What does this fold into?
Amino acid sequence: MVSDPTILVADEPTGDLDRVSAAEILALIGQLNREFGKTIIMVTHDPRAAEAAHLIRHLDKGVLVAGS
It folds into this structure.
C-alpha cells in the first residue's frame, strides 16, 4: 500500500488461512474498497470470499463468463 495503488489484485487471499484469519483478511479487503475506493480483483475458489464480491465472473474452460 506504500504506492497507494488504485487496483489491488489478490490471488487466493484466503487459500491457506484458518476461518478466523480468512474473515479478517476479507474484512480488510472490504475496508480498502469501501473507505479508500480501491478496486479489488480477487481470484478465489473460496465461496465465502466470493460472497463478499460486488461482481462475480467465472472462468469456464479458459473462457471468462458472466456470473452474478
